[in-house]
Amino acid sequence: MPYGKKNPFPSPILRSYDLNTSGSEKETYHVELSLEGSGLEYVVGDALGVFPRNPEEQVDEILSGLPFSGNEEVPLPNGGEASLREALITAYDIRSLTPKFLKAWQERSGSPHLRSVVESEDRKVMNDFCWGREVIDLVTDYPADFANEEDFVSVLKRLQPRLYSISSSPNAHPGEVHLTIVIVRYHSHGRQRGGVCSTFFSDRADGIQPGVFVHHNKAFQLVEDNDAPIIMVGPGTGIAPFRAFLEERKLRGAKGNNWLFFGNPYRKTDFLYEEQFTSLQKEGLLSRFDLAFSRDQAEKIYVQHRMEEKGQEIWSWLEDGATLYVCGDATRMARDVDATLHGIVEKHGGRSEEEAKDFVKALKKEKRYQRDVY
Ligand SMILES: Cc1cc2nc3c(=O)[nH]c(=O)nc-3n(C[C@H](O)[C@H](O)[C@H](O)COP(=O)(O)OP(=O)(O)OC[C@H]3O[C@@H](n4cnc5c(N)ncnc54)[C@H](O)[C@@H]3O)c2cc1C
Prior knowledge:
There is one protein chain. By secondary structure, the protein is an alpha/beta fold. The protein folds into three domains: about 10-50 and about 160-215, Elongation Factor Tu (Ef-tu), domain 3 (Beta Barrel); about 55-155, CATH 1.20.990.10; about 230-374, Nucleotide-binding domain of ferredoxin-NADP reductase (FNR) module (Rossmann fold), CATH 3.40.50.80. About 35% of the residues lie in helices and about 20% in strands. The protein has helices at about 55-65, 85-90, 100-110, 110-120, 125-130, 135-140, 150-155, 195-205, 240-250, 265-270, 275-285, 305-310, 310-320, 335-350, 355-365, and strands spanning about 10, 15-20, 30-35, 45-50, 75, 80-85, 160-165, 175-180, 185-190, 190-195, 210-215, 230-235, 260-265, 290-295, 325-330, 370-374. Strands 14-13-12-15-16 form a five-stranded parallel sheet, sandwiched between helices. A four-stranded antiparallel sheet has the order 1-11-4-7, with no helix packed on it. A hairpin with a 2-residue loop joins β9 (about 185-190) and β10 (about 190-195). The longest helix is centred in the C-terminal third of the chain and has 17 residues, at about 335-350. It is globular, with a radius of gyration of 23 Å. The model has no long low-confidence stretch (mean pLDDT about 95). Bound molecules: flavin-adenine dinucleotide. Flavin-adenine dinucleotide binds near residues 52, 132 and 186.
């Protein structure tokens, strides 16, 4: 069976290091994995799916609150069996709480408080309860009686793979795939917590070959035309596919102009891939490079502010056939960048609000406005 989502390739981790420097509030890992011998192929713009592992200490803490040793055999979500401990590390989700899970837990715990959450008609009560809590919180705060180990795993969801935009060109790094991962850590309900997959790479990947697969992204592809200009907007980990695009354009000897907007909190500690991008700028491959370090001055400056400042030139690049790519945070950044784009079309393209909407729609249809946002 070829390697893919159903049969992930156990990929050796070649290198992994923090791109933020000492004193940063963020941790962003550059991770290089081997695809040697996997038969997996990708193009720039694609994403890599990764099957993470839960932290062993957290699994042991859960087991210590349950009447199971961890050695019991349990069914795996994909078929087959494993010990309960192994299944909790590799196959079941022990983080996210769902209404279905909570209901099943309530039935086995008899907790009046959980009953009030589960039975509330206000969805917010359920969402507020689940936010920032994990399975361990139920084990410690709402003890439940499970008929047996199989009953326990039957209420859990399967552990899902996470997707990461690929930050390498396969032609620049044959047999390898690179990722740019921001580590998720936060404090809630009296505990320090972490995202499963991101902290897997930072805290517990030593000696482990995570299962990976390629997720082709038809909606985010580098233009074939090597003479066409491109504008890339990628703050934070949004930079990932643009490192790949630029590596690829360099190898292709593409003559089209490349313009990159990057942002993060502080220049001193958070300028990801600074050496690589500044040398691409010196070489002339990166024709324009605009930076927005939001906290280096009193007022916050984000990529959309830099775009606004350069609105006239962005408009003339678009008139020259540029494709605009946006990658990164979907909730705020992508929305603000989209609003800024509409504003630029109105102001510098002399369009009404309605006409600007039509213009942007047409750009999307022509695949000249592509987004990889999450
Ligand atoms: C197409 C695509 C491309 C992506 N590319 C990248 C990329 O290049 N780089 C990258 O870093 N990520 C990328 N992501 C996101 C990535 O897939 C993961 O979602 C991310 O790494 C978090 O996964 P995790 O397993 O570490 O965290 P999870 O275990 O999934 O935990 C995240 C969850 O923790 C909870 N949470 C987070 N903060 C708090 C808080 N303060 N309080 C309470 N609860 C909180 C929220 O429920 C949140 O959904 C991409 C996603 C998609 C879909």
